[in-house]
């Protein structure tokens, strides 16, 4: 019911205009999104890097429906990468890319071509690209595109979602040398046939996947704000003797900044996922709609300011 209401609101420009005037909405946007322009993203990146954090930038926009939209998102990434490099912010800053923003839903080849151009620009800028993971209907396509990209751009990273039943097996496939895998719980509403439904089962899967990645030869990126999972990550880092160059923690911009600072203080590599762009309304509303539990997640983050 809640999900239906949020999804309906996410398509309504009237609700968008109305919400934009509500102080709570403005607080949420400011807290979780760097700003609308590339310059805002650069400024926020500079501040985070000065605090000892690494950054991955996401140009907001997904579910692109025309090749022109996909091209414009690709061009923004190319511009962003050249600005990051010129500002001396690479390799501390890399980019995260949603293939749906690059045309995956209507032309897989176009999405691959666009992603390849972004990977080439990242290589030139001396940094990396990580492919975000969207709903389970896109997992095979995204992993296929990843495999093709990694032939020429081996540092291209993937996201795997612990709530999917298939993910343990995907972790085994991607735990080899040179592979970069961001492990998250998963943010979409998925059916029981493909995904664990209870928080406990998702957490148990996360730990199994974390063990596979941390004991493997790749570069694990543990994306979670969950204190228990972070503690397990710290424990496995000691057990497998992985230092700051051997793995990293990742968290979303605006969520548990104190914990991000604590981990930096402990000597860990911590990367903040930093969204920016004009499409903030869709981003926040879709996050909520994908998983209504995220409403509590955002509210908790605001309450902990
Ligand atoms: P969860 O939301 O279950 O929170 C666990 C616990 O963390 C809480 O019970 C609480 O103890 C603590 N906590 C959380 N917020 C807190 C706060 N503000 N203050 C204090 N404690 C707090 N998803 C996806 O499907 N595809 C993707 O590509 C990505 N990419 C991605 C990148 C990065 C860097 C991150 C961090 C996350 C993603 N995600 C994602 C989102 C991810 O799947 C997930 O929805 C959120 O990270 C929330 O899950 P947590 O692991 O934080 O646990």
UniProtKB/TrEMBL annotation:
Residue positions annotated to bind substrate are 98, 286-287
Name the coenzymes or cofactors required: FAD
What GO terms describe the biological role, i.e. biological process, of this protein? L-proline catabolic process to L-glutamate
Instruction: Identify the keywords attached in UniProt to this record, alphabetized.
Output: FAD, Flavoprotein, Nucleotide-binding, Oxidoreductase, Proline metabolism
Q: Name one GO molecular function term.
A: nucleotide binding
- The UniProt record lists the EC number as 1.5.5.2
* InterPro entries (alphabetical): FAD-linked_oxidoreductase-like, PRODH_bac_arc, Proline_DH_dom, Proline_oxidase
Q: In which pathway does it act?
A: Amino-acid degradation; L-proline degradation into L-glutamate; L-glutamate from L-proline: step 1/2
Is Nucleotide-binding there in the keyword field? Answer: yes
Per UniProt, residues of the Proline dehydrogenase domain are: 42-298
What does the UniProt cofactor note say? Binds 1 FAD per subunit.
The residues listed in the UniProt record as binding FAD, with positions renumbered to this chain, are 133, 161, 185-187, 224-225
Q: Which reaction does it catalyse?
A: L-proline + a quinone = (S)-1-pyrroline-5-carboxylate + a quinol + H(+)
Spell out the protein name for this chain. Answer: proline dehydrogenase
| Organism classification | Bacteria, Bacillati, Actinomycetota, Actinomycetes, Micromonosporales
């Amino acid at each position: 019911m809640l999900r239906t209401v949020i999804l309906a609101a996410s398509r309504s420009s009237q609700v968008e205009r109305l919400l934009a005037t509500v102080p709570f909405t403005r607080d949420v946007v400011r807290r979780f999104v760097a700003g609308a322009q590339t310059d805002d993203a650069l400024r926020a990146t500079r501040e985070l890097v000065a605090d000892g954090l690494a950054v991955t930038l996401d140009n907001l926009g997904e579910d692109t429906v025309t090749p022109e939209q996909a091209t414009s998102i690709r061009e923004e990434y190319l511009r962003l990468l050249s600005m990051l490099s010129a500002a001396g912010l690479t390799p501390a800053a890399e980019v995260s890319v949603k293939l749906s923003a690059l045309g995956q839903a209507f032309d897989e080849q176009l999405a691959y071509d666009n992603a390849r151009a972004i990977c080439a620009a990242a290589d030139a800028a001396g940094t990396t690209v990580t492919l975000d993971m969207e709903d389970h209907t896109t997992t095979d396509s995204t992993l296929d595109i990843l495999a093709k990209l990694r032939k020429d751009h081996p540092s291209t990273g993937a996201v795997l979602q612990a709530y999917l039943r298939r993910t343990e097996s995907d972790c085994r496939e991607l735990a080899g040398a040179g592979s970069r895998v961001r492990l998250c719980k998963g943010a979409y509403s998925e059916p029981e046939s493909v995904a664990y439904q209870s928080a406990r089962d998702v957490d148990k899967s996360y730990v199994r996947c974390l063990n596979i990645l941390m004991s493997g030869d790749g570069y694990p990126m543990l994306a979670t704000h969950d204190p228990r999972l972070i503690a397990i990550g710290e424990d496995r880092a000691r057990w497998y003797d992985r230092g700051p160059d051997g793995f990293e923690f990742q968290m979303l911009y605006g969520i548990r900044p104190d914990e991000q600072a604590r981990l930096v203080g402990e000597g860990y590599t911590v990367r903040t996922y930093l969204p920016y762009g004009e499409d903030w309304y869709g981003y926040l509303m879709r996050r909520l709609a994908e998983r209504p539990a995220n409403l509590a997640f955002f509210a908790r983050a605001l309450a902990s300011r």
